[in-house]
Amino acid sequence: MFSRVFFGSLAVAATLLSQQCAAKFPFGGYQLETVNNWGDNPTGLEMQIYKPGNVAEKPAVIFALHFCFGSGSLYNDLNNYSEQADEHGFIVVFPSSLHENGCWDVSSNTSLTRFGGGDSTGLFNMVKFAISEYGADPAQIFVTGSSSGCMMTNVMIALYPDLFAAATCYSGVAAGCLAGSPSSSPIFSDPACANGNVNKTGEQWAQIVYNMDPGYKGHRPKFATLHGTADTVVSPSNLDQEIKQWSTVFGIKQTASNPNTPQQGYTQLVFGTGTQFVAYSAAGVGHTVPVNTTLDLEWFGITSNAA
Ligand SMILES: *[C@@H]1O[C@H](CO)[C@@H](O)[C@H](O)[C@H]1NC(C)=O
Ligand SMILES: *[C@@H]1O[C@H](CO)[C@@H](O)[C@H](O)[C@H]1NC(C)=O
Ligand SMILES: *[C@@H]1O[C@H](CO)[C@@H](O)[C@H](O)[C@H]1NC(C)=O
Ligand SMILES: *[C@@H]1O[C@H](CO)[C@@H](O)[C@H](O)[C@H]1NC(C)=O
Q1: Which ligand 3 atom is nearest residue 196's CA?
Q2: Fewest 10 Å CB contacts: which of 45, 156, 181, 284?
Q3: CA-CA distance, 227 to 235, in Å (whole number)?
Q4: How confident is the model at residue 24 (pLDDT cuts 50, 70, 90)?
Q5: In a domain, 306, yes or no
Q6: Which residue has the higher pLDDT, 5 or 72?
Q7: Is 305 among the domain residues?
Q8: So what's the pLDDT on residue 3?
Q9: Which residue, by CA, sits nearest to atom 8 of ligand 4?
């Protein structure tokens, strides 16, 4: 039983690695700067940034979180955030997790607790550092990520809703889905969540979010989340769980379903007025839903040009 899970997970890991090795580095030309001494770093995270030469006076900051077996610099090489930063004058922070096979800890109680001392605490401190060090606009702090980075995005907006203006992410799971798993790495985790077997009601999912920042009644970051229907690594039924969680937290119901939006085969599911929460189901797309930085920037409301 254990060995079946283990070898199944190894196969998944090998697939992910080979996909990434085979991938070209379309945006490989953007050099990151490594930042040290950015604050209390209980789990040994690394902070790298892309700061354009023409950075805005009070810049927006996008935190871009990598997938498992990845790194901040690989995520930068594969996606278009730095080129967009040159165009719009914002800063991109590419943190790296150096443990659990390069996954973000979205399973331990430590990391699922506000200021609990896990990865999420380190990321919180990175955000605070970015605001003070770069004079960033505290009202324009954004978080996004893929796979494990999307799982962590769900966790960060649940733990620190006051910190972020908006979030997007690709191919993740609801906040708390992996709670109690012995690990967040696909090799050692309890596969129930990734396999789509953690199925809760909207109320149950929402309660998890409420418990992550008890008593919080303020602004919550607007959230857009994407998932492929042919994802064999993180079951697409996790999109339904995320939808139940966040539509309940926001107290809004689905109001529209727009086919072929923003591209062929993607269905945009609109909740409420569409300004707080939307989900995209990408027909026939596997675990790697291509990051669309244009969609991200539109959702974040980043339109201003550089200084
Ligand atoms: C990357 O972003 C820039 C905007 O800064 C855009 O002009 C360019 O077309 C984008 N490239 C791709 C391949 O998305
Ligand atoms: C999780 O950690 C918090 C803070 O350290 C602690 O108060 C709480 O009891 C823990 N919960 C569980 C289920 O271990
Ligand atoms: C989750 O539970 C609901 C209600 O019992 C059920 O209708 C739905 O099919 C289940 N979904 C999954 C993915 O198991
Ligand atoms: C990305 O999203 C934008 C709108 O948000 C859309 O216009 C564009 O076609 C999308 N890019 C791709 C490659 O689908």
Answers
A1: 13
A2: 284
A3: 9
A4: low
A5: no
A6: 72
A7: no
A8: 34
A9: 262
Distance CA 214, CA 152 (A): 19
Range of the domain at 274: 4-300
Q: Answer for the pair 172, 231: CB distance below 8 angstroms, yes or no.
A: no
Asked if residue 82 has its Cβ within 6 Å of ligand 1, the reply is: no
Confidence of residue 209 (pLDDT cuts 50, 70, 90): very high
Residue 258: the pLDDT is 98
In a domain, 108, yes or no: yes
Q: How far is it, in rounded angstroms, from Cα 187 to Cα 101?
A: 8
Nearest CA to ligand 2 atom 1: 109
Q: What is the CATH number for 115? A: 3.40.50.1820
Cis amide prior to 221 (ω within 30 degrees): no
pLDDT > 70: percent of the chain: 91
Q: Ligand 2, residues 109, 110, 111: which to mutate, most atoms within 8 A of Cβ? A: 109
Determine whether the shortest distance from the Cβ of 113 to ligand 2 is under 6 A: yes
Structure confidence at residue 26 as a pLDDT band (50, 70, 90): confident
Whether residue 11 is predicted with pLDDT greater than 80 in this model: the reply is: no
What is the pTM assigned to this prediction?
0.92
Number of folded domains that form the chain: 1
